[in-house]
Specification:
Blueprint lengths: L14 E7 L6 H9 L6 E7 L6 H11 L3 E5 L6 H11 L4 E4 L5 E2 L3 H11 L5 E9 L11 H4 L2 H4 L4 E5 L2 E4 L3 H7 L9 E4 L18 H10 L4 E12 L9 H18 L6 H21 L26
Parallel strand pairs: 1-2, 1-4, 2-3, 6-10
Antiparallel strand pairs: 4-9, 5-10, 6-9, 7-8, 8-10
Length: 317
């Protein structure tokens, strides 16, 4: 690991935004500008370059020289965004942790609209919000946020309590909802208190990919208080043919992380919930078989087969 390129800010930042990057010279400047131009909040921007071979290092050097909130750490290519995020976490000094992948964007008011939830609700550990998918222009490609399109509020209605316009507090058993239904977080749409993380370790698992972020969200949410801001505050760029389009790879990691989570939550889930969870994993195993065999021989998925994908590298599970 090389020494960082930066002038470390002279204040204690409220928020540490961690940006893993590999060969993204076309988009990294826009990404970092969307963080630097936030309307509120003292922050630091920790960029971990995972061995880029294009112009990314030169772009990062220029940006770090212009903004002392940007620190750049370079390492040999690991091939996994989770490894780079773990490096970023190890250098974070803020009270709150946030993420943004190098080709994605923040809304200008993202931090301004999330930070007060923590400040006004000391019991809240995690805050998340809606996000949009885009290919060219984030304000134009999709008419509404992803969680609105997937009916999150109606699906999670039994686990949410609206406390003011656009702000919901999740019930203490929200962990059960995200285990049995789906994980509504992306790496760009979640922020949490740094104290939730253990003092050391691989916070993002480095033995599964994709899905390492979904695994962390499940572990962090168990027993924690979560809040939802019903507003689009980040933008996720979709890539044709990207890893998020590989259903077999996603299913393999989704089955692994849910099997582990079923064991983790065995003291939380009641008998009915445990049965529902095992059925969910069984449906994924069936779909995996269908994706690796002749499609014509596979049954049509039933109404409860609802496997969507979340996070820039993980499955919507």
């Amino acid at each position: 690991m090389q020494e960082p390129q930066r002038g470390r800010p002279q204040f204690m930042p409220e928020v540490s935004v961690i940006v893993p990057v590999f060969n993204c010279d076309a988009y990294i400047e826009d990404c970092l500008q969307s963080i630097a131009n936030q309307s509120a909040g003292h922050l630091e921007i920790i960029v971990v370059d995972d061995g880029s071979t294009d112009r990314t290092p030169a772009v990062l050097k220029k940006l770090a020289s212009l903004d002392n909130r940007i620190s750049v750490y370079s390492q040999p290519n690991s091939g996994y965004a989770g490894v780079a995020r773990n490096v970023g976490i190890s250098h974070a000094t803020g009270r709150y942790i946030a993420f943004l992948d190098a080709d994605d964007l923040y809304h200008p008011n993202r931090i301004e609209h999330v930070l007060p939830v923590f400040e006004n609700r000391p019991d809240v550990d995690i805050v998340f919000h809606d996000h949009k998918l885009f290919r060219t222009q984030p304000q134009q490609d999709e008419p509404s946020g992803f969680l609105e399109q997937t009916r999150f509020l109606s699906r999670a209605t039994d686990y949410l309590k609206q406390i003011e316009n656009g702000l919901y507090i999740c019930r203490e058993d929200f962990y059960t909802f995200i285990s049995l239904d789906f994980i509504p977080f992306r790496t760009s749409s979640i922020m949490f208190r740094k104290e939730l993380l253990s003092a050391r370790g691989a916070w993002f698992r480095e033995d599964i990919f994709p899905g390492e972020d979904g695994d962390l969200w499940l572990r962090l949410t168990k027993g924690r208080r979560v809040a939802f801001v019903n507003e689009v505050l980040s933008y996720y760029r979709q890539w044709p043919g990207g890893v998020s389009r590989d259903p077999v790879r996603h299913l393999l990691t989704s089955i692994k992380l849910h099997t582990d989570n079923l064991e983790r939550g065995r003291t939380v889930f009641n008998e009915q919930e445990g049965g529902q969870y095992r059925s969910k994993i069984a449906r994924q195993l069936l779909e995996l078989g269908c994706n690796t065999s002749t499609k014509a021989m596979c049954p049509t998925p039933g109404p409860h087969t609802d496997i969507r994908w979340t996070s820039n590298s993980a499955s919507r599970v």
